[in-house]
Here is the input.
Amino acid sequence: NARGETTVGRWSMLLWIVAQLTAVSSAVQDGARSPQDIMKKAGVKFGTARSLYPVARRMDVARLRHVLRRFAEADMDLKTGGLRATADSPQEAEGILDVCLAELCRKVT
Here is the structure.
């Protein structure tokens, strides 16, 4: 399976996006106002900076913390057996992936 074709692969990609959003948000809070500035301050690639800049600009620190907390809790549950995440029974992992993705995509005002 290629990355992203399994629940574990999609979860890994989503965690990567959240990590990059955190870095971009930090750079924006530190005064970065362009993808080039974000690249320098956050150490992310141009495409990542350009894609996540509008989201980071609208997301306040409290909202970002909420998203990070939700993802951290879900990741811990998946890795410690709090949720079942097996190839034979991926429903719980798929469910938490859907919940976290919806949380990340909630409209930021």
